[in-house]
Structures are given as C-alpha cells and as structure tokens.
Amino acid sequence: MKKIISDNKGKRIDAYISEKEEITRTAVQRLIEEGKILVNGKEQKSSYKVSIGDIITIEEVEAKPIELKAQDIPIEIIYEDNDIIVVNKPKGMVVHPGNGNPEGTLVNAIMAICKDSLSGIGGEIRPGIVHRLDKDTSGLLIVAKNDKAHVNISEQIKNHEVKKTYIALVRGITKENEATIDMPIGRSNSDRKKMAVTKNGKNAITHIKVLKRYDNKYTLLEINIETGRTHQIRVHLSHIGYPIIGDYIYSNGKNEFGVAGQCLHAKRLEFKHPTSGKKIILEAPLPEYFENILHELEQ
Q1: Would you say residue 63 has pLDDT above 60?
Q2: What residue spans of the chain are helical by DSSP H?
Q3: How far is CA 189 from CA 19, 20, 44, 49, in A?
Q4: 67 and 140 assigned to the same domain
Q5: Residue range(s) defining the domain that contains residue 54
Q6: Number of domains in the chain
Q7: How confident is the model over 13-47, as pLDDT tens digits?
Q8: CATH code for the domain in which residue 213 is found
Q9: How far apart are CA 135 and CA 237, in angstroms?
Q10: How far apart are CA 128 and CA 121, in angstroms?
Q11: Catalytic residue among 54, 134, 136, 247
Q12: Beta-carbon neighbour count of residue 17 at 10 Å?
C-alpha cells in the first residue's frame, strides 16, 4: 500500500496522482474505478478535487510476471570482454521485455549470447541493462555482464563521465552552427504518454553541432547529452522547431521519407572500462536506411 499526503488544492485526483507517480491518467482512473485508490479511507470519483492534507492510499498492483527466454536474434556486437558487451541496437527493437513486448527484445537476444553471464542489478526483466535507447533509436548500448561492472558503469553515467554522441537528421535549417539546449523535461500535461519541456520538469541539457545543411530544408546534427531524460533529444529538438525526421510522436506525424522510426543514431560512446579503468572509444556506423536518406539529399 502506498500513501501520498496531498500538497495540492483543487486539482483532479486522477491528474494529481498521474503527475506524482508518473503513470498514465487512464491507468489511475482504472484503479479508482476498481476501488484501489482511496481518499481519507473512502472511495472517490476521478473528478474528485484534492485538498491539502488529503491522505491518498494506492493499493499497489502486482505486475504480471514475464517469462524471460533466450532468443537467437541477430545482433551486431561492437565490443565484448568478461565484464561488458556493447551492441549496435537496430531501430525497431525494444531494449527489455514489458507488457506488449514479452519477447523479441534486446534482452532476449543478449541472453542467448551471454547465457547466465549478465548482471542481476537491473531486475528480472532487465538483466545487464545499464542504460536504454528508445525503440526506434539505433546505435550503441552497453550491457553489464556482472554486478561490479553494472555499478561502475551506472556511476559513470550518473557522474556524466560517459560521453554519448548521437547523429540526427532534422527538419529545418538551424541558424547556429553550435548551440546548447538547457530546458527541463517532464511528463506532458496534455498527453501523459509523451514528454515535454515543462516548468516543473527535470534538468536536461543537450549540445548540438551542425555537420551539414541540405537544400534549405534539413540539417544533419551531431548531438551530445549531459543528462539522460526520457526522449530528451527528440523533445528538445522538436521544442526549438527542428523535429527529427521520422519521429512520429514529436513531429506531428510528418514523415516525408517514409521512415519506420526516427533518424536518430547513437554513433559513439566514450567511457572507462569498469575493471581496468582504460578509456574505451567505440563507434557504430549509421544504419543503411539513414545512409540512403543522406545519399538522396546529396543528389
């Protein structure tokens, strides 16, 4: 049972809990209908407006177990040793299993490669997963083979010691050759499935550098991020008027090249090896569909 003491007055309870717990408003409404959310010990409707000091209790629903299984899915390995494995994740692949994606994920593929050699810190459905990439973002991703490596890489990420470089093709011509986007990101108020630049969001910093401009319509960018918020690059670029090509969610559904997934690729990783401390620099080539679009623009 989870307890929240309201610090708000006048907000609908479904909206309030959705913001506090980062779950969808629809899911909150369903829990309210099922009597799993009480206010001061009583059931209320989703339209109930909270008062300061209200005691809200939420019956935590046990997640349905997901049976993990190793699957022989082809995956490009960029680097591997006894501590870590770095792969080039293809677009369209989910990182770990979840509701709606019980199999066919990166974790399923990694389990077939590493057998039992994966860290357990990520939990039962996220063995070895230290950081993530969106389903439709391709590129480099580190997987830890043991708990010591997992803790070390996680600390490096937390301390901004892992340098991640992305390549993105965006709609529009950026005025500056280099710029920094420093805008907080949080859950969108209008659509809880989306992220947005919000006043009360978490600190998010993205650095962009122009690699090439095409036909007064598109810009190829090199991107480095200091923080790792959900959908950070996609949200920041869309917010300043340069949505990523193929990003259905943050570009109003426009997709002039017919891309299944956005033109965003995690191209380069720099970090210290978790055991030796040696600096490791790895790169993954742009996927074929991305190269084809750039070739088309060159013509």
Answers
A1: no
A2: 13-21, 25-33, 106-114, 147-158, 232-239, 288-298
A3: 8, 12, 22, 17
A4: yes
A5: 2-58
A6: 3
A7: 998 998 887 677 777 888 888 888 999 999 999 99
A8: 3.30.2350.10
A9: 18
A10: 7
A11: 134
A12: 26
